Request: fold
Amino acid sequence: MAPDDVLRVGQLLLTSTLVITVLALICNIVVLTGRRAALTDARAAHGKARAGVGARTSGSDDDALVDEAEGVDETEEVPRGAFAARTIGDRLPKGLALYATGFTAVSVVLLVAYLVMRTITSGYSPFANQHEFAVSFAFGILLAYLLAEYRYRIRALSMVVLPVVIALLVYANSLDMTIKPLVPALKDNLMLTLHVAFAVLSYGAACVSFGAASLYLAHPYLRVKALPSQEVLDDIGYKAAAVTYPLLTLMIVMGSIWANTAWGRYWGWDPKETAALVTWLIYTAYLHTRVTRGWQGSRSAWMLILGFAAVLFAYFGNHFFGGLHSYG
Reply:
């Protein structure tokens, strides 16, 4: 494929991914807010039915319907007489939930196609510049989110995670997409692939923990029916951080080996190296205080938010401080 064709197809894939991810976010928002609205309408209809003359007795066939919102144990009775008020509001979100997950999965497939296309065209792993890593970063987050949604059946995380992905895709689209020859420091393709692959996976898990922590702190102020309990969010944040930490460790180890090959030293306090170390120390502190001191709740949530802020700084920091990791 000619270079111009690669750029055109790549632009199409990235733009399509951006649009589809936005659609996934919209569907998730409708699902998460629609169920609450549906239950509110049902209760209103229930109240009118009871207030009217000749209202049903509690022993009739119009007994309670149990709300099926994710992560919520709702026991208030809603009679079948209110079913008409729920039909549109309940069935539509359930259908949109499938679309939301499907759109997210399609976004992952499109990003894989884009990264594979660049790999075949360039002959090296698609991790060599800011544009390629932005796309890879978005892929890692989407993959981690899909796994979390599948494991915990909680799509509320999408309200935090998908906007981060959208921002990364917008940023990636704003950068130069031209495939250029590798700089000498990046020509150890195996170490480059391992180092950045661990970074992508760890950053994706870190974003999930960030999403759980953000929802934990916002929980008292959100009126979203399908929002899980704070205990569940706290647990998800912890488990995602427990995945993030070893991957971050491997990223740093592989990076130091690569640095010795490329620059003749394992560690040089380059701004990006230092930012990665600070990020690792934050997650170390989080896990230490969680396991040995029993920290949970707001304190732990703030540490996870600080950890993801450090992740973002490690990624964008070279724009401000330069260093050997500034590859464009």
Q: What stands out?
A: The two ends are 24 Å apart (CA to CA). Confidence is low (pLDDT under 50) at residues 53-90. The chain is about 75% helix and 0% strand. The longest helix spans residues 3-51.
